[in-house]
Amino acid sequence: MMMLFAFSTLACLLMAHVASANDEHSAHEHHAHVHGLVQLTIAIENDSLLINLLAPANSFVGFEHKAETKQEIASVKRLQSILNEVSNVITLAPSSCNLSDKTLDIDALLPTRIESKHQAHAEISAEYQLDCQQLAEATSIRIVLFEHFPTIEKIEASWLNNNKQGATNLTRKKNTLFWQ
Ligand SMILES: [Zn+2]
Q1: Among 41, 62, 107, 153, who pairs with 52 as Cys (CB 3.0-4.6 Å)?
Q2: Keyword set for this entry (predicted)?
């Protein structure tokens, strides 16, 4: 029970972090909508790993309206199929993980989107919850997203576990996040 409680506390912290990034009023203070940038948050608790991605849609597909042309529709399908597999987002050795939950929000790009005059920009998000083995032995995560999306220039990564938290900027050349 203690472990469950601790994880849910961590998950709440992570939610609060992401919620503040989504809040328009705090957007200018905490979180800039910068094309080419992705925000990645990782929470580690015992053998559970929570991964959250938040980014301007432009960082992934190069546009922020609902997909209309054949090319745009194909880009969105590709985005969806890549983000559906957490192995396209991160790799984690020597630990092995199973996906236990996933939420993908790319609604802003879907043909069903109802366009608003005031919404010039749009964001997408993805969250993955994983149950891992030997997570304590893992000290880093390699971000493989860069390999799938040349449009991503920088990833602002932050992480937290029971003891510590930290943040670092990742690039194509420096694509590994260390937390110990
Ligand atoms: Zn934008």
Answers
A1: 41
A2: Signal
Q: How many domains does the chain have?
A: 1
Specify burial of residue 67 (Cβ count, 10 A radius: 0-12, 13-18, 19+).
buried
Rounded to the nearest angstrom, the distance between the alpha carbon of 39 and the centre of ligand 1 is 14
Say how many Å lie between the CA of residue 62 and the centre of ligand 1: 9
Please give the distance, rounded to the nearest whole angstrom, from the Cα atom of residue 132 to the centre of ligand 1: 35
| Structure confidence at residue 63 (pLDDT) | 94
Whole domain around residue 107: which residue ranges? 2-178
Asked if 171 and 133 touch (Cβ cutoff 8 Å), the reply is no
Distance 111 CA to ligand 1 centre (A): 18
Q: What is the pLDDT of residues 123-132, one digit of tens each?
A: 999 999 999 9
What are the residues facing 124 on neighbouring strands? 55
